[in-house]
């Protein structure tokens, strides 16, 4: 038996883990990323002569839970046609039996990496609003994401904001669909769970970004679980970059989104989006009731240019009166 | 497995059952022997190297301890206490080795080999040669070292099996291409066209042969691993650890 060097071991690992694309329309180019459940590869679609991303399960399993989850993910994304959600092109099974799907190749940065280039709070909040758009669209189509975090948001080269990794998504209970996972399938996925950062025992999600009810493993989650996660994303955006204190109204928005009691949170994603948009426009936000002084201060901040102009005019008039000859 | 050991060869366990642990716990001697036939080829080198480098034991003492370990594994029924829900088999075995070495000063109390217990025929010379290529594990790096050596051992066994199967099927060239691209240093520098000319085949054949060999290698690795794990969950975690690749 010949000696295997560490680099040979690594090459063999890559060779064994790489998807077997023989007989398919795809040609492997390189690996883009690795998660707990599987890998994502850059492949060439030889029929359409374009590069796409191919997601495939790394590890075979007897229960079929992860295969069901990958298929569920592909189906969920396929039904969500939105500029903020990566489109799925194809799904199937490779010659080695592993399920896969292909999607648009996004060549950008993860949100947490992109933020180094976005120093302004306003610009970061505009990105947040576009995340909200995609999530609200998914909710309107009966889909919860359940794993919203900066690492699952990509910023494209032209500023596109894309919500990724719908592997933990779940159809809302109010939406009847034959595509929904059956309870035994969902249980299989839960049993499978040791996904990096996204599955922990019987609880699916990422610690720190999960709402209290998701952390407890409540079966009936609704949109407010994603609202909580958006609140954590908002907190992350506020904490990056600028050393200036967070405006009180924005802190109140974050607090309301992250309320432990779901009933005290924003009930829908558009609600938090409206508050953030109002904050950006200098308008009152529902999460922050303000007194007359606060109202006046915000009014003055919003109309700073006019006020400065008026002050300049009044000073000029005063100077003219004061220094008028005779 | 090395040619000069009586252990190894294809074991009779079906690939979808967690039978090795059950066999090791069996009352019947032949069942326990079957378990040894699976476990020893995969684990003896990691155990020996671990004792040599992590515990800094001299060659002769490391050989004795390695022999002792596998004899005790069955005779003392160490696997009876293994609980796959609490630990991986690999980790459990390493901890058992730690216990054996820590008690090795009590030499007089050690199980005396000979008599009705067969001495294992292990190619310690080859293992000793491989030690020259290894670094002493860093403090706290015992688990990582043992895991890497287990992967090296398992991949080595899988490659041997793949070579035999390819030759049996008249697909020796498929295996040669895998060796060239994935084992030999610098093999990936060759283009498929260059390799095709060298072996007098078409470039598309290189792609197909390599894909076949890699697919079979993956299958064999996972089959071997399935035999050496005690549950679906442990198999999945071990497969993830074995096949999880770092991004370049």
Write the layout of secondary structure elements.
The complex is a heterodimer of chains A (326) and B (248).
Chain A: H1 6-17, E1 26-34, E2 38-45, E3 50-57, H2 65-79, E4 88-93, E5 99-104, E6 109-110, H3 111-114, H4 121-140, E7 143-144, E8 153-155, E9 161-163, E10 170-171, H5 183-192, E11 199-200, E12 203-204, H6 212-215, H7 223-239, H8 248-257, H9 269-281, H10 292-302, H11 304-322
Helix pairs in contact in A: 2-5, 4-7, 4-9, 7-8, 8-9
Chain B: H1 19-24, H2 29-53, H3 59-75, H4 89-102, H5 124-131, H6 142-168, H7 172-183, H8 192-199, H9 203-227, H10 232-243
Helix pairs in contact in B: 2-3, 2-5, 2-6, 3-4, 6-7, 6-9, 7-9, 8-9
* Number of helical elements of chain B: 10
Going by CATH, the architecture of the largest domain in chain A would be Orthogonal Bundle
What is the CATH class designation of the largest domain in chain A?
Mainly Alpha
Describe the largest sheet of chain B.
Answer: none
Judging from the principal axes of the Cα atoms, what is the shape of chain A? Answer: elongated
What percent strand of chain B? under 5%
Taking pLDDT < 50 over at least 5 consecutive residues as the criterion, the unreliable ranges of chain B are 1-17
Radius of gyration of chain A: 25 Å
Mean pLDDT of chain A: 83
Q: Provide the helix percentage of chain B.
A: 55-70%
